[in-house]
Amino acid sequence: MKTEERTFVAIKPDGVKRGLIGKIITRFEDKGFKIVGMKLLQVTPELAAKHYEEHQGKPFYNRLIYYITSSPIVAMVIEGYNAVESVRHIVGATNPLNADVGTIRADFAQIMEYNVIHASDSVQSAEREIGIYFKPEEIYDNWQSMQEIIAYDEERYNQQGL
Ligand code: CMP
């Protein structure tokens, strides 16, 4: 079953510092997903606490907050069919050691603490995380992909005998 969804993705500080922004975005564009929100931002401790509230109290929590606030991240809203699950496949397992070859974490990361990227784990998490990082007016889906434009123009040309 195909369901159109939105998911939240963040290229974490290690991904930004290592110059991987372009390579990572390419993976999602190549898949055919539509990026409907994107910004470079500095995560504040308050924002980090909201994002990772489910991990509060865990042994790795303080380091996680330190790391995610250590330099800017690239936050994105990605739209497409079964986007939540599909993006998680492209991202790979949390621990890069267990990530399938060809996934972002397998290809670019070595350890869990520096796993390059975050992606929402459910539709509910996606809604929550998108709401933390984006205002509704910062999401732009009122445009067509090039593929959609070509198909539309082609039909019009045919109708007009052009
Ligand atoms: P992420 O998908 O952003 O969700 C929580 C993050 O905590 C995870 O990726 C890792 O970067 C980080 N983390 C660090 N240590 C652990 C751990 N032991 N278990 C799970 N996540 C961890």
Question: What does this molecule look like?
Answer:
- The protein has 162 residues and is of the alpha+beta class.
- It has one domain (4-160): 2-Layer Sandwich (Alpha-Beta Plaits).
- The chain contains eight helices and four strands.
- It has helices at 13-17, 21-31, 45-51, 61-68, 83-91, 104-108, 123-133, 146-159, and strands spanning 4-11, 34-41, 73-81, 117-119.
- It has a four-stranded antiparallel sheet.
- The longest helix is centred in the last third of the chain and has 14 residues, at 146-159.
- It is elongated, with a radius of gyration of 18 Å.
- It starts with a strand and ends with a helix.
- The model has no long low-confidence stretch (mean pLDDT 96).
- Bound molecules: adenosine-3',5'-cyclic-monophosphate (CMP).
- Adenosine-3',5'-cyclic-monophosphate binds at residues 55, 60, 64, 94, 112-113, 115, 118.
